[in-house]
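Researcher: I'd like a structural prediction for the single chain below. Treat it as a standalone chain; there are no partners to consider.
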Amino acid sequence: GSVLFLRHALAPGNGDPADFTLDDCASQRNLDAVGRRQAATLGELFRQHAIAFPRIYSSQWCRCRETARLLEMGPVVDLPGLNSFYQGIVPREATLDALRAAISELPDDGGLTLMVTHYVTISAITDIGVASGEAVAFDPATGRAVKLDLAQ
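Model: Treating it as a single chain, here is the predicted structure.
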């Protein structure tokens, strides 16, 4: 597929604290040391296999931004359509509509787009569940999705 959805690296726990604030990483569930190593290792794996991403987008949640940054694959752009609607912090349908619109506007240049996001977002678009640091290749033209084995 031309889109690779990657769930953020390991951030222990479930959901976000009640005092969650989008602009305050201290109020969010974040990557731990294992998650930071996991993200860096995934970046190394992509480089070893000569996988490049001309476009890298991330949810605005800190754990996704940090995962994308630690991959060291290039500049990262926030995409609100990748945000988590798990706890109702953002509205589900409006968020997914924004994501679908962004995907439909991706250039058809053969380049692979990386989207770092959350379980609920990946599952809603692809019908595939993933653990932290797992990925799904998605072809927007056909809707076909395949979970990838990123054995490290």
